[in-house]
Protein 1
Amino acid sequence: MSFVFDPSKPIAIGSDHAGVEYKTVLVKWLADKGFEVKDFGTYTTDSVDYPDFAHPTAASVESGESSFGILLCGSANGVAITANKHQHIRAGLCWENDVARLVRMHNNANIICIPARFVALPLAQQMIENFMSTPFEGGRHATRVNKIACA
């Protein structure tokens, strides 16, 4: 199943308390660019459990309701691990532009996971733009991606 960004579908986004400030800015930034955004929370800096927000974000992408997803937490490891429990999700942890491009080109990622405590907001925005605009290369990478599923 190849992911291709579909601007007619919403972008799913979720975060824990460590990523909520970035998420709030990103939701507005994406909306200002004309994209519909489906925000799965959290909405405050009160301590929460990241799976409570990563699972519904991933489920929205997996079902096809949303075109792709954005997840944020302190390190982005927790949300990436959680999202990748979903059979048809390939969530990539990104901390620089080249990684955001490569998770799309080589891994056909459909969720970008951003470590809010380790990247500046402008870099997060650039990574999302790169993620959205980079196509999957297919070829030898498709063979590898097709071996990821356990079922």
Note: The longest helix spans residues 20-32.
Protein 2
Amino acid sequence: MASHTPVSIDNAKCVLVIGATSGLGRSLALAISELPSRPTVIAAGRRQDRLKELEDKKLATLQFDVAADEETLKKTIDSLVAKYPNLDAVLLASGIQYQVDFNKHVNLSQVNKEMHVNYLAPVAIISMFLPHFLKLSAESRPSFVIPITSGLALMPSPYVPNYSASKAALRSFSISLRAQLKSTHVNVVEIIPPLVESELHDEQGTTPMLAKFWMPLDEYTTKTMEGLRRGDEQVAVGMAGTVLKRFEGLDQPFPTAGIERERK
């Protein structure tokens, strides 16, 4: 039986970062590529011009759309694992955010898209990688599933209620997945960002206001990498870390005893 003592991202040999063409994903992909262990980093995203820029920084790249249909995702992931058999970490950074006011007309297509990209697609992608990661686990090799949720999963914002709900769903899934995989070498590491400098806010026109409060991206990346290298199962810095400690009680382990009894 595997023991889930802290496992550092330094142990990863090949890391796929989905959503690496901007924001947190891009910054973390570059930071991981500079670890002393020098893992192979595959930067995945939709925008070819951004991928080319990452190629110039010596990262491997992959054009990848999380909103693709299930068959396309499966073919892409299977071919990726065949090409990179040492792939042992996937970091899911893709996300979209819409402001929704339920006092007014609600664009349900946006609501559905937001839930799909932020929750349903990550669950599908993780499920498609797990057979490979469980095979590595059987060889006593660690692997990493790293979803990026949000501080808004802990304390929702009325300005982005569906985004908050989608990230809360992904957080809930991550906690349950970690419990299910407790007896394996698959490490579920949730990254919980606070408000961070990001292009995510540009389309909504909220950047000028939020820039007064957000954590600079470089500072956030440095602190998050510290948590990943320590082997934290929940990497929450800044205000997200404060809220997590206040409302979740980091000293209280997740109650997995019931799950283990059912398996026996």
Note: The longest helix spans residues 108-138.
Protein 3
Amino acid sequence: MRITEAARRLGMSPRMLRYREALGLLPPVREQGAHRRFGEEELAAVAQGVELEKRFDVSPAELAFALRVLSEPAAAQAVRELGIRIGRLQAPRRALDFEKEKALRLLRTSDRSTASNPDVSDR
């Protein structure tokens, strides 16, 4: 079906559907150079995007950026760095820090078991 019919079935204007296409929120056109034709799969994808926008109270542009972050490692890294800087994300722990914390936990567990079992401390 053409864009006018697809937009009518989705309850939006053709302009809004073109906007979503420009943002990358529609599946790619199957044939290069062909006019977009909408089938049930394309309608379902648009409807799913609209549902996500409503559920998470985000705009189509925000949803498109979220998809970009998920699909482009450089964008994901930049957003992660900002999240760490502003305190919304924790910095990843280095392997050495993890091993140090693990060793300290094991020592504390060992100290408690030794204190509760006096026979162990005599050895």
Note: Residues 3-71 form a domain with the Multidrug-efflux Transporter Regulator; Chain: A; Domain 2 fold (CATH 1.10.1660.10).
